[in-house]
C-alpha cells in the first residue's frame, strides 16, 4: 500500500482530498530554448532542485492551493489548459508524477517522497569546499570578466601567445619543468589552482546572468578527483545565460592561461609553460560531451534538453523495430531528436567499451596497485629520512593518484550493480522527477478547443523598453525588434512572478523589534511595488500603537484614522464607503493612518485590529500591516494570529540581526512556525560591504529558516522621511524591492488556514453518545 493510500485510510475527509503545493516550491515560468515540441516549465523545490514539467503539470502545481477539492481543481486546470482534465486523471498525475517529485501533496500536509535522481555517472565521495555565501562573493568579483570587450581581449591574448610558443619554442622547452620533482610538484599545484579557478568561471557566469550560484565542492568523478559548482539556478535563465554558465569554466581556463603567460614573459619560470600547455588539454577534455564534463551541459543547452542521460533508454527503445513512436522520444523536436540520437549512438558504445575495459583490467590493476603502493610508501619514508621533502611529497601524491582510481572504480561498479538490481526488481527504469510522459491521451479536446493561442499564434518577441534596443525599435517603427536585454528580461520575469494569482485575501505583516530598522519604509515600498505591478486592491494599515508614521510617507487625502474607521465600521457596506478613510498614492497603494492625537491615552487592542482586518479583507486583496516594535503587545499578537505571511526587517548590524533571529525563535516557540518558514527577511539600508560584519553569514542564516532574504541598499531618497515613490529611488533600490515583492508573491499560493482534515464521525465509528 502506498503512503498516500495509508493517509487516506487514516484521515477520512469530507468532500475528498484537497491537493496542496509543498512548502518552499517556487514557480519559475517557461524553460527558455526548449528542445521539446511542447513548452516546458521550471519549478524549484525547497531543496533548490529544479524540476522540468509540462504545461499541464505546471498548471496543477500552480493551482494546488490546499483548499480546492480535486473536482474543483480539475475544472480550474482544464480552463487554464484549454482541454478537459478529469479528477481521476488529476489524482493519478499527482500520485505518479507530482507527489514523487516533491511538488504536490494529495492531502494538505501529507508527506511527499521528494525523490532525487540517482545517475550512474555522478560524483561520489563529495564534500563542500566553499559555502554559497563565499562563492557568490567571488562570483560577484569576477562577473565583470564576462563583458564582451574583456572576452575578446582574453581570446586574442591566448591566440597571440599560442602562436608565439608554436613559432618560437620546442616541445622540450615547454615541458622542461617536468624533469625534476620540484618542477612536477609546482606544476601539480598550479594545475590544482587552475581547476579551482575553472569553477569560479561557472559561478561568475551564473552570477552575470542574474542567477545565484551555490556551493563549490570536491568529489570523485569516475576515478578522477574533481571540483564542482552548484549552478542549478542557471536553469531559470534563457539559453544564452545557460550557455554562458556552461562555458564559464573553459573561459576562465583561458583567463588563467593569459595570467600565466604574462607571468612567464615576466619571470621566465619554466613550470608556467607546462601549466599553459596542460590547461589547453584540460579545455579539450572539458568540451567532450560523452560524460558529465562541460561539453555535456553545453550540448544539452544547445539542444534544449537539460538531461541527456535521461533520454538514453527512450532513444534506444525507439530504435527497436516497431517502437518508432516511443513516448519519450515523440516529445522532442525533429532536430533535437537527431542531435540526441547521435549523441546516444556515440556515448553508449563508448561508455560500455570503457566500463568493459575497466572491469577486464581491474584484477591486473589491483594486483599491480599493491606492489606499486608498497614501493612508493617505502620510497616516501626513505626520502623523508634523507630530508628530500619535495621528492617525498611527489611520491606521496603518486601513491594517492594510483589509489583514487581504485576507489572510483569500486564506486562505479557498485553503483552499476545497484542500478541493475533495482531495474530487475522493478522491471522498469524509475522515472526521473525532472521528466514525465506526454499527457495527450487525457485531453479529449476536439473542434474549436484546439484553437488555443499557444498552438495557433506565433510567439511575439517582447519589445525592449530601455537603452539602444528601444531606440532601434522606436526609430524603425517596430520593424526591428531585437528583444529586451538580459537585465530587462530578468525584470519582466520578476514582475510576472509578482503577479502570481491570489486564491483569496492576503494579510502580510511587517515585523521588527528594533526601532529605526526601516520597517515602515519597507511596508510602504513593498506596497508601492505590489500595487504598481498587480491589478489587485492593495492597502497598507498602520497598526503601530505608538503613533506610526506611515501616513506621512504618502500624500494625505483623508484626515480619518484607523480609530475613525473602527468606530464607523457599521456604516461601511461597499468599497466606495471605505475609500473615504484611506489615502491613495500614485502607485494605487492605499494607506490607513494610525492615531497621532496626543490626547489619546488608550491604544487599540487585539479585538480592535482583528475587527479592522476582517473589514479590510472584505474589500481588498492584499493587506499590508505595519506593526510596532513590541511583539509581546496584545495587539501585535492578535495581528500575528490573523497574518498569512510576515516580513522581518533588520538593520545591517549584529544586534539587529540577533534581535530578528530572536523574533523568529519566539514565533517558533509560540505556535507560529508556519509563519517563519514562509517569512521573508529584509536587511535594510546596506552600504557596500561592511568592514567587520559578515552579511553573507547573516543572509545564510535567514535563508536556512525563511523563504528568502533581500538586501535593500541605502538610498538618499528614503532618508528624508517624506512622501517618496518608486520613481524617486535608484534603480538598484527599485530592483531590490521588486525582488522582495517577488519573494512575498512566491508564498501567495500557500494557505495557512487550510485544514489538514475534517473528520466525519460517521466514517470513524465515533459518533456522539
Structure description:
The chain is α/β, with parallel strands linked by helices. The protein folds into four domains: 20-105, no CATH class; 123-412, no CATH class; 463-499, no CATH class; 503-750, 3-Layer(aba) Sandwich (Rossmann fold), CATH 3.40.50. It has an eight-stranded mixed β-sheet with strand order 11-12-10-13-9-14-15-16, sandwiched between helices. A three-stranded antiparallel β-sheet has the order 2-3-4, covered by helices on one side. A three-stranded antiparallel β-sheet has the order 6-7-8. Helix 5 (132-142) crosses helix 8 (181-209), helix 8 crosses helix 10 and helix 8 crosses helix 15 (389-426). The chain is globular, with a radius of gyration of 30 Å. The two termini are 34 Å apart. Keywords: Membrane, Transmembrane, Transmembrane helix. This is MinD/ParA family protein. One of its GO terms (biological process) is negative regulation of cell division. Residues 511-653 form the AAA domain. InterPro entries: AAA_dom, P-loop_NTPase, ParA/MinD_ATPase.
Amino acid at each position: 500500500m502506498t503512503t498516500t493510500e495509508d493517509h487516506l485510510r487514516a484521515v477520512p475527509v469530507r468532500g475528498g482530498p484537497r491537493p496542496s503545493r509543498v512548502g518552499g516550491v517556487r514557480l519559475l515560468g517557461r524553460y527558455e530554448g526548449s528542445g521539446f515540441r511542447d513548452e516546458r516549465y521550471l519549478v524549484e523545490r525547497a531543496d533548490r532542485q529544479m524540476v522540468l514539467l509540462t504545461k499541464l503539470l505546471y498548471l496543477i502545481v500552480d493551482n494546488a492551493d490546499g483548499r480546492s477539492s480535486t473536482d474543483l481543481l480539475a475544472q480550474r486546470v482544464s480552463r487554464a489548459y484549454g482541454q478537459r482534465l478529469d479528477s481521476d486523471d488529476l489524482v493519478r498525475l499527482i500520485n505518479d508524477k507530482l507527489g514523487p517529485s516533491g511538488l504536490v501533496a494529495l492531502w494538505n500536509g501529507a508527506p511527499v517522497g521528494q525523490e532525487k535522481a540517482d545517475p550512474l555517472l555522478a560524483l561520489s565521495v563529495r564534500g563542500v569546499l566553499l559555502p554559497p555565501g563565499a562563492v557568490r562573493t567571488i562570483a560577484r568579483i569576477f562577473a565583470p570578466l564576462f563583458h564582451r570587450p574583456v572576452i575578446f581581449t582574453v581570446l586574442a591574448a591566448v591566440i597571440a601567445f599560442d602562436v608565439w610558443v608554436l613559432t618560437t619554442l620546442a616541445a622540450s622547452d615547454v615541458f622542461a619543468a617536468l624533469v625534476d620533482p620540484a618542477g612536477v610538484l609546482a606544476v601539480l599545484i598550479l594545475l590544482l589552482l587552475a581547476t579551482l579557478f575553472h569553477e569560479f568561471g561557472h559561478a561568475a557566469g551564473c552570477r552575470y546572468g542574474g542567477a545565484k550560484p551555490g556551493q563549490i565542492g570536491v568529489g570523485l568523478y569516475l576515478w578522477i578527483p574533481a571540483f564542482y559548482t552548484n549552478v542549478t539556478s542557471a536553469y531559470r535563465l534563457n539559453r544564452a545565460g545557460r550557455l554562458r554558465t556552461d562555458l564559464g569554466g573553459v573561459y576562465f581556463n583561458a583567463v588563467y592561461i593569459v595570467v600565466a603567460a604574462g607571468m612567464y614573459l615576466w619571470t621566465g619560470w619554466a613550470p608556467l609553460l607546462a601549466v599553459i600547455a596542460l590547461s589547453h588539454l584540460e579545455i579539450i577534455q572539458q568540451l567532450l560531451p560523452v560524460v558529465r564534463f562541460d561539453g555535456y551541459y553545453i550540448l544539452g543547452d544547445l539542444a534544449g534538453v537539460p538531461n541527456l542521460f535521461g533520454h538514453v533508454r527512450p532513444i534506444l527503445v525507439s530504435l527497436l523495430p516497431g517502437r518508432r513512436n516511443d513516448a519519450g522520444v515523440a516529445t522532442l523536436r525533429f532536430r533535437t531528436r537527431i542531435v540526441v540520437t547521435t549523441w546516444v549512438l556515440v556515448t553508449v558504445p563508448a561508455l560500455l567499451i570503457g566500463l568493459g575495459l575497466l572491469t577486464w583490467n581491474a584484477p591486473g590493476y589491483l594486483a599491480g596497485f599493491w606492489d606499486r603502493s608498497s614501493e612508493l610508501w617505502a620510497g616516501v619514508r626513505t626520502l623523508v629520512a634523507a630530508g628530500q621533502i619535495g621528492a617525498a611529497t611527489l611520491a606521496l601524491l603518486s601513491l594517492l593518484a594510483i589509489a583514487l582510481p581504485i576507489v572510483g572504480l569500486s564506486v562505479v561498479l557498485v553503483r552499476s550493480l545497484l542500478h541493475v538490481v533495482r531495474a530487475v526488481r522493478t522491471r522498469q527504469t524509475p522515472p526521473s522527477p525532472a521528466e514525465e510522459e506526454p499527457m495527450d491521451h487525457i485531453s479529449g479536446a476536439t473542434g474549436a478547443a484546439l484553437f488555443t493561442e499557444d498552438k495557433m499564434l506565433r510567439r511575439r518577441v517582447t519589445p525592449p523598453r530601455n537603452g539602444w534596443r528601444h531606440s532601434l525599435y522606436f526609430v524603425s517603427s517596430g520593424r526591428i525588434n531585437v528583444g529586451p536585454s538580459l537585465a530587462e528580461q530578468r525584470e519582466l520575469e520578476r514582475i510576472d512572478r509578482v503577479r502570481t494569482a491570489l486564491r483569496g485575501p492576503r494579510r502580510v505583516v511587517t515585523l521588527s523589534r528594533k526601532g529605526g530598522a526601516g520597517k515602515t519604509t519597507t511596508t510602504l515600498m513593498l506596497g508601492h511595488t505590489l500595487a504598481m505591478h498587480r491589478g489587485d486592491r492593495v492597502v497598507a494599515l498602520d497598526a503601530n500603537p505608538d503613533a506610526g508614521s506611515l501616513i506621512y510617507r504618502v500624500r494625505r487625502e483623508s484626515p480619518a484614522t484607523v480609530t475613525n474607521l473602527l468606530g464607523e465600521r457599521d456604516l461601511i457596506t461597499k468599497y466606495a464607503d471605505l475609500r473615504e478613510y484611506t489615502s491613495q498614492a500614485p502607485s494605487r497603494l492605499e494607506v490607513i493612518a494610525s492615531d497621532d492625537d496626543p490626547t489619546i491615552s488608550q491604544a487599540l487592542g487585539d479585538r480592535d485590529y482583528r475587527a479592522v482586518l476582517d473589514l479590510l479583507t472584505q474589500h481588498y486583496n492584499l493587506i499590508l500591516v505595519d506593526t510596532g516594535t513590541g511583539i509581546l503587545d496584545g495587539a501585535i499578537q492578535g495581528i500575528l494570529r490573523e497574518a498569512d505571511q510576515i516580513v522581518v526587517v533588520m538593520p545591517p548590524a549584529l544586534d539587529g540581526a540577533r534581535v530578528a533571529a530572536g523574533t523568529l525563535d519566539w514565533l517558533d516557540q509560540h505556535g507560529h512556525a508556519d509563519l517563519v518558514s514562509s517569512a521573508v527577511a529584509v536587511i535594510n539600508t546596506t552600504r557596500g560591504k561592511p568592514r567587520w560584519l559578515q552579511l553573507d553569514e547573516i543572509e545564510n542564516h535567514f535563508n536556512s529558516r525563511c523563504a528568502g532574504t533581500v538586501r535593500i541598499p541605502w538610498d538618499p531618497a528614503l532618508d528624508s522621511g517624506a512622501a517618496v515613490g518608486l520613481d524617486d529611488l535608484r534603480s538598484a533600490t527599485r530592483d531590490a524591492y521588486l525582488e522582495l515583492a517577488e519573494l512575498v508573491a512566491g508564498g501567495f499560493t500557500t494557505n495557512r488556514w487550510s485544514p489538514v482534515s475534517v473528520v466525519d464521525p460517521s466514517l470513524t465509528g465515533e459518533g456522539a453518545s
